[in-house]
UniProtKB/TrEMBL annotation:
<dbReference type="InterPro" id="IPR002305">
    <property type="entry name" value="aa-tRNA-synth_Ic"/>
</dbReference>
<dbReference type="InterPro" id="IPR051270">
    <property type="entry name" value="Tyrosine-tRNA_ligase_regulator"/>
</dbReference>
<dbReference type="GO" id="GO:0005634">
    <property type="term" value="C:nucleus"/>
</dbReference>
<protein>
    <recommendedName>
        <fullName>Tyrosine--tRNA ligase</fullName>
        <ecNumber>6.1.1.1</ecNumber>
    </recommendedName>
</protein>
<dbReference type="GO" id="GO:0000049">
    <property type="term" value="F:tRNA binding"/>
</dbReference>
<comment type="similarity">
    <text>Belongs to the class-I aminoacyl-tRNA synthetase family.</text>
</comment>
<keyword id="KW-0694">RNA-binding</keyword>
<keyword id="KW-0547">Nucleotide-binding</keyword>
<keyword id="KW-0030">Aminoacyl-tRNA synthetase</keyword>
<dbReference type="GO" id="GO:0006437">
    <property type="term" value="P:tyrosyl-tRNA aminoacylation"/>
</dbReference>
<dbReference type="InterPro" id="IPR012340">
    <property type="entry name" value="NA-bd_OB-fold"/>
</dbReference>
<dbReference type="GO" id="GO:0005524">
    <property type="term" value="F:ATP binding"/>
</dbReference>
<keyword id="KW-0539">Nucleus</keyword>
<keyword id="KW-0820">tRNA-binding</keyword>
<keyword id="KW-0067">ATP-binding</keyword>
<feature type="domain" description="TRNA-binding">
    <location>
        <begin position="352"/>
        <end position="453"/>
    </location>
</feature>
<keyword id="KW-0963">Cytoplasm</keyword>
Length: 512
């Protein structure tokens, strides 16, 4: 970036790093030209908020005028104990590219100054393959296994693929034509392996820039495979609050505190001049306070002047600010479809909401139950040729004229049951809070009889739910509206065949 001295560029490149290998070479290059760096990520589990740590460093690199390449290491994802099935490699890479571009946009990083590359674009070439064979002739099994010890899953009898992993990562430095590779300190053994191995093939060794490992919410490494240790980039504000509530945050303890590490390595590197970590709290708890540097914040927490609840609440605010534009982008039907295809929901048959037969119904007639003043008798067209009779307790909440000719969502595979002498053949799905009950809002374009499905679930509903197994009772616990009033089961939207969502005026309410 023009206007910065060599020292200023180096300060941006190296700030918050735990270690730099090849600092002399870094100095020499920066005195002559801008640095070329790559950061790679294996496209395995869904990226989570800890990915903002490398993203914030990528922002630093760009501010320092570096040429930055982001490698979506799809082939590596398969080699690491098949964490990404071969059939999903392309979809996972597409998902990573989409979500990481949205992450960078959310922190103001211009995408036109970055290069995005997929590993399979060059790792299947003749030249690269020949170099893999050459490397295999100079690397021992012991050295390959040692190099991947912190990154590749370790087992007593490793697959050959896991042993290839470090060598391929080393060769990436040459084939991406970079001066330096950036990664976490857990990659250190692979980096030193690369420094030793590349010169054996006649290639120069590169600079290695290492980030510290940010603790997870439960302490220890934040991992995609440990649900409670990480916040997914598409988690709702409710999910964020729930996970932060469980986060390890012992009063005065600054060691293994994932919240403080996130503030240090992400938020403070993103704050603009004059901004700081703004804590809002009651006057009796110390009042509002803005911390303009991380050291003051850590000291305040260590001396028990900042309560964990206030730290959590403030981190929650900033995380949601980062995630809001990403969530918004992934509301598009195209990205929802990509997300579902790249990460098909693994589920036990008995746990899936696709066991529910939920269809659009049109209310043709509304009358009062002769023996129950709080119940309506609804005649509903469900596209079956004959109308169904459904009893609903909406008298106190919705007038008959508002229900008449209305589109509703109906749970159709409950066992028919008598309600005050009249058989009810289903249930109109409603949202409710302490004072209000109202039917879910069905898109006007949906036709009577249309089957509604949950995003990511494609099983066939049961013909009739067995009441003894309490299937509906177990499933409806996670059936609700989210912060935006959209109907979801866990995080899966309830959708029409056209991808339209069902909604309600009532947010964060159960559906039953």
């Amino acid at each position: 970036m023009s206007g910065l001295t060599y020292e200023e560029k180096k300060e941006l490149i190296t700030r918050n790093l735990q270690e730099v290998l090849g600092e002399d070479k870094l100095d020499a290059i920066l005195k002559e030209r801008d640095l070329k760096i790559y950061w790679g990520t294996a496209t395995t589990g869904r990226p989570h908020v800890a990915y903002f740590v490398p993203m914030s460093k990528i922002a630093d690199f760009l501010k320092a005028g570096c040429e930055v390449t982001i490698l979506f290491a799809d082939l590596h994802a398969y080699l690491d104990n098949m964490k990404a099935p071969w059939s999903l490699l392309e979809l996972r890479a597409q998902y990573y590219e989409a979500v990481i571009k949205e992450m960078l946009s959310s922190i103001g990083v211009p995408l036109d100054r970055l290069k995005f590359v997929k590993g399979t674009e060059y790792q299947l070439s003749r030249e690269y393959s020949l170099d893999v064979y050459k490397l295999s002739s100079v690397v021992t099994q012991h050295d390959a296994r040692k190099a991947g010890a912190e990154v590749v899953k370790q087992v007593e009898y490793p697959l050959l693929s896991g042993l290839l992993y470090p060598g391929l990562q080393a060769l990436d430095e040459e084939y991406l034509k970079v001066d330096a590779q950036f990664g976490g300190v857990d990659q250190r053994k692979i980096f030193t392996f690369a420094e030793k191995s590349l010169p054996q093939l006649g290639y120069e060794k590169r600079i290695h820039l290492m980030n510290p490992m940010v603790p997870g919410l439960a302490g220890g490494k934040m991992s995609s495979s440990e649900e409670d240790s990480k916040i997914d980039l598409l988690d709702t504000p409710t999910d964020v609050k729930k996970k932060l509530k469980k986060a390890f945050c012992e009063p005065g303890n600054v060691k293994d505190n994932g919240l403080l590490s996130f503030v240090q390595h992400v938020l403070f590197s993103l704050f603009k001049e004059g901004e700081g970590f703004a804590v809002s709290r009651a006057p009796e708890n110390g009042g509002d306070k803005t911390f303009n540097n991380y050291e003051d914040l850590e000291e305040e927490f260590a001396s028990n002047k900042l309560h964990p609840a206030d730290l959590k609440a403030t981190v929650e605010k900033y995380i949601n600010q980062l995630l809001d534009p990403i969530r918004k982008a992934f509301e598009s039907s195209q990205l929802q479809k990509l997300s579902s295809a790249a990460y098909p929901i693994a589920k036990k048959e008995q746990d899936g909401p696709d066991r529910l037969d939920i269809r659009v119904g049109k209310v043709l007639q509304v009358s009062r139950h002769p023996d129950a003043e709080k119940l309506y008798i609804l005649q509903i067209d469900l596209g079956e040729g004959e109308v169904r009779t459904i009893i609903s307790g909406l008298v106190a909440y919705v007038t008959a004229d508002k229900l008449d000719q209305c589109l509703v969502a109906v749970l159709c595979n409950l066992k028919p049951s008598k309600m005050r002498g009249i058989v009810s053949e289903g249930m109109v799905l409603c949202t409710s809070n302490d004072t209000t009950v109202e039917p879910l809002i069905v898109p006007s374009s949906a036709a009577a009889g249309t089957r509604l499905t949950f995003q990511g679930y494609n099983g066939q509903p049961e013909e009739q739910l067995n009441p003894k197994k309490k299937t509906w009772e177990k499933l409806f616990v996670d059936f609700k509206t989210n912060d935006d009033g959209i109907a979801v089961w866990k995080n899966s939207f309830l959708l029409t065949p056209n991808g339209e969502k069902l909604t309600s005026r009532l947010a964060n309410c159960c559906i039953k």
